[in-house]
Backbone:
């Protein structure tokens, strides 16, 4: 009982911790930390990988530190061009047989029509001089965007580090993704 | 008064986001205070270069239009 009565007094008598405010005030103006964008690249479809490449390269071009965590279907576009059927067992091999890996072989999430959709999209892209996912991926890596492959997906799909493009970072897991997202100024799941 | 342009970027005909990506690559090797000129035809670049200037701190010194070609002059931060 006495404890309950005394505690509010104790709290009230204590001065407020001045640390955060003092720190904020002592920071010279304009010396804000680099902004961070984190994208979880999950889908692996043309109409979703494309915006991932556009946003990540533009973020890096705008001085925003950008990291892309690459997981599930999103990992297949990051397989090297010369790789075709990958995996240790028939199920993993079936996966890459049905969904051809590589940045040039993406399907549309809607109106794919056995490849007619992506073909028309590619044709429109050239007509309107829009950069392809491959060109944007090259720009993104050149500008310092870090692509982090998901270790668990790699194991499950039978993908080895050497199957993925050299520009990718070291494989990591969900806890790394959570840390990146909670520390970043903006995070997207695409 | 004519501005002393250090480098030019010809982004005419290119779509978003390539004018910005090319500008970022071209402005990097310049020294602080240098001026960079960009030519673009993408109508979205008007808003995009203003936003890019605010995000990066590279000042948008001049912005003109001539027959569908947008010209931006940026000062390296």
Residues:
């Amino acid at each position: 009982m006495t404890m309950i009565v005394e505690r509010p007094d104790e709290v009230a008598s204590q001065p407020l911790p001045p640390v955060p405010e003092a720190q904020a005030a002592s920071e010279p103006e304009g010396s804000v930390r680099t902004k961070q964008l984190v994208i979880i690249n999950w889908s692996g479809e043309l109409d979703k990988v494309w915006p991932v490449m556009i946003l990540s390269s533009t973020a890096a071009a705008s001085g925003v530190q950008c990291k892309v965590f690459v997981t599930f279907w999103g990992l297949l576009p990051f397989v090297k061009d010369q790789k075709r059927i990958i995996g240790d067992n028939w199920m993993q091999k079936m996966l890459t047989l049905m969904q051809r890996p590589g940045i040039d072989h993406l399907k549309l999430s809607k109106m794919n029509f056995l490849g007619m959709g992506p073909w028309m999209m590619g044709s429109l892209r050239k007509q309107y001089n829009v950069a392809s996912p491959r060109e944007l991926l090259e720009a993104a890596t050149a500008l310092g965007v870090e692509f982090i492959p998901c270790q668990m997906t790699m194991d499950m799909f039978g993908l080895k580090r050497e199957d993925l493009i050299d520009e990718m970072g070291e494989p990591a897991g969900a806890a790394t993704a959570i840390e990146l997202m909670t520390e970043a100024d903006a995070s997207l799941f695409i | 008064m004519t501005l002393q342009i250090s480098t030019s970027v010809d982004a005419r005909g290119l779509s978003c986001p390539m004018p910005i990506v090319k500008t970022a690559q071209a402005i990097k090797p310049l020294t602080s205070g240098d001026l960079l000129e960009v030519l673009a035809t993408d109508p979205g670049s008007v808003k995009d270069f203003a936003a890019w200037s605010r995000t990066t701190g590279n000042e948008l010194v001049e912005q003109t239009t001539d027959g569908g070609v947008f010209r931006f002059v940026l000062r390296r931060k």
